[in-house]
Amino acid sequence: MPRKRASTADTGGKGYTFADKVAAAFLVQMLARIFPLEPSLGLISEIHFETKESGRSLDDLLLLLQSGSGIARWPISVKSNQQLSRSGFDATFVQDAWAEWRNEGVSKFDQNSDLLGLVTGVVGDRPLQDWQNVRKEIADTTPDRFLLRLDGPKQVSSSKRRILMSLSSMKQANQVQRAETIRLAGRLHVQHFNESKDEGRCINQCAVLVTSGTIGDGTNLWNALCQFAADNRGTGGYFDVPKLLRHLRGTFDLVDYPDFEPDWKRLDTLTTDNLANVRSVLGNNIRLDRSIEAASIFENLEQHGVTFVAGESGSGKSALIAQLAKESGKFGHVIWLTPSQLSKASQNEISTSSGLRHTVPDLIVASSRSASLLVIDALEKFEGEALLRIGELLRAVYDSNFTGWKVIVSGHLQSWEKAQRILLEQGITDFVKADLESPSLSTIRNAIHNLPGIGALFLRTELQPILRNLMVVDWVLRTNIGQSLSEDPRRHIGETDLINSIWVHWIGDNQRLERDRLLRKLGEHEGEKLSGAVTVDSVDQTELQLLDNMSREDLVRIELPSVRFTHDLIGDWARFRVLAGQGNNAIAKIRSLIQIPRWNRAIRLYAQSLVEGREGSLHHSHQRGSR
User: Fold this and answer.
1) 536 and 410: one domain?
2) CA 478 from centre of chain
3) Are 94 and 167 spatial neighbours (Cβ–Cβ below 8 Å)?
4) Dihedrals φ, ψ of 476, to 5°?
5) Where are the alpha helices (DSSP H) in 553-599?
6) Which of 303, 358, 331 is nearest to 350 (CA)?
7) Alpha-carbon dihedral angle through residues 380, 386, 387, 391, given to the nearest 10 degrees
8) Is residue 398 part of a domain?
9) pLDDT of amino acid 614
10) Cis peptide preceding 561, ω within 30 of 0
């Protein structure tokens, strides 16, 4: 008969430090993906504490072992005193083992797949070795054949016989009962936990699990696992890998869990490639000091789960966030995926297309790093399926209670309302808006004042507003048009004049008409979509080589099957050129497009070009009259 049940609180007393350490050692094995027994029996997938209320007799721990053939349950008795000697097993343990084996209670022990366990703090080397040898001999044959060996002369040593006989009164048992004892013995695994030696081994393994690799951090991790064990023995709790990582995340920076490590390496590569596509310099490697803005964003990150960085196009949002993401030692992992990479029907499809074995939400939940960052850059470019997928990523971070995770979302000022709606739909309320102003004119001028012709350009009051746009300044420097525009100080130069000068450089002299046509066509197609992505199939086959050239020139970015401009302002300028080429039909064209958001800037630029044209004429007439 099974022993009288005790409550979880009674059997999980906080004073059993030996039991705490044994459980913590199994937690280490689960984290490190170390086989607790022979590899064929599998790895630890779950650890349950004090399972007496479930009717188990071996109730100190219940381990679930996952192998290729399925899941095996391993109920374990943990005792600091001697449970196995030369005379055999402790009688109380034997009683509990048989109660477990015979399903006396509600444990539903599967005799074909489940295991029995004993971890003891005191055992002689000889009895333990004898038991391990005889159990292996039993496991390698059938009960009937082993009984023949047992009954044969000198095939089983007397010391092994004594241990086996302690599991049952084998002299009085019939053949069926003896065979059942052999079957039980074949499923019973005994381990010795030597506190003076095994605790040190566990600390060494913990040092391998922390990214610092130090014994000090390894000791701290071991102490935390012992505390988890003590707390959960008192409450009858459990841990699986995601739950354990979630409890450790934010306190310990761990190496990636082995199952997830290849996926994290792949995600890191995708993120690194996307970060490399963010231009963070002006012209020929000129960098602006934006440390104050970066510090402000990081301060918001520390205080809130989600920070929305709002700014006009060309204010440097992406570059500033990329600077934060790449800062050494700040984040264990950064996830930065593009709308094209996320525009899939499901997370599983994203995994397949990205070469991942797990979904990105699963990786977020199971992350082992103490501080990681999810970036959603240019929210206005996400629509349809991509928008649904980022909602799922945000939900995964929310379900992790933001432990070890922060989120940055960037977008135009007009995207703030959209951002709030998406976050609230996922239950997220801890977010803040951080406005990013364009750098001051003096800051930009001081960084580039030594370049020929640039200083004079910045003195033109009519250009000063647009020259605060970093994308515009970058292309002014890259196309080297500053000096030519400054040669005639009496000439009036408006924003659209500057745009047209850059455009002339983009289309060049070779295949000028074809390049102009392709850029305008891409801009027109892009205007039909909120995301700004155009399929390569929309490009004529004869134009594919031009498209590839433009990709190398940093005008477009190709992520098959999509192509998009490297900056949204290039698309705006392309659409402006579409309107400018309409002549007398421009007003009718504008009427047909005015309700489409992505055409708004192009329409504004077209109106501005008309105003600047008149202003230029007046300025020129005034100059002639004053001569």
Assistant:
1) no
2) 36
3) yes
4) -60, -45
5) 568-580, 586-593
6) 358
7) -130
8) yes
9) 58
10) yes
Dihedral angle, C-alpha 594, 597, 598, 599, nearest 10 °:
10
Q: Is 61 helix (H, G, I), strand (E, B) or coil?
A: strand
End-to-end, the C-alpha distance of the chain in Å comes to 118
Instruction: Choose among 428, 446, 412: nearest CA to 420.
Output: 428
Residue 183 covered by a domain:
no
Q: What's the CA gap between 193 and 191, in Å, rounded? A: 6
For residue 495, give both structure tokens: 């924003």
Cβ neighbors of 354 (< 8 A, separation 6 or more) are: 266, 267, 270, 341
DSSP 278-321: S--SBTTTB----HHHHHHHHHHHHH-SEEEEE--TTS-HHHHH
Check residue 493 and give its pLDDT. Answer: 81
Cα–Cα dist 235/244, whole Å: 16
Measured over the CA atoms of residue 417, residue 423, residue 429 and residue 432, the dihedral's sign is negative
- Do residues 412 and 552 both lie within one domain? no
pLDDT of residue 14: 41
- By the 8 A CB rule, do 556 and 550 touch? yes
How do residues 294-326 score in pLDDT, each as one tens digit?
A: 999 999 999 999 999 999 999 999 999 999 999
Q: Quick one: 268 exposed, middle or buried, by C-beta within 10 A (0-12, 13-18, 19+)?
A: middle
Q: What confidence tens digit (pLDDT) does each residue in 180-227 have?
A: 999 999 999 999 999 989 999 999 999 999 999 999 999 999 999 999
Residue type, 373: L
| Percent of the chain residues topping a pLDDT of 70 | 92
Task: Please check whether residue 424 is in contact with residue 401, taking contact to mean a CB–CB distance below 8 angstroms.
Answer: no
Residue 368 is encoded by which pair of tokens? 């082992």
Same domain as 513, residue 396: no
CB 75 within 8 A of CB 154: no
3-state secondary structure of 49: strand
Q: Are 103 and 58 in contact (CB under 8 A)?
A: no
Q: Are 426 and 496 in the same domain?
A: no
* 1 inside domain: no
β pairing state of 372-376 and 334-336? parallel
Q: How far is CA 306 from the centre of its chain?
A: 15
Closest CA to 522 of 531, 530, 532: 532
Host H or E run for residue 621: helix 600-625
Question: Which of 172, 185, 159 has the alpha carbon at shortest distance from 85?
Answer: 159
Choose the weakest-confidence range: 152-156, 198-202, 460-464, 533-537.
152-156
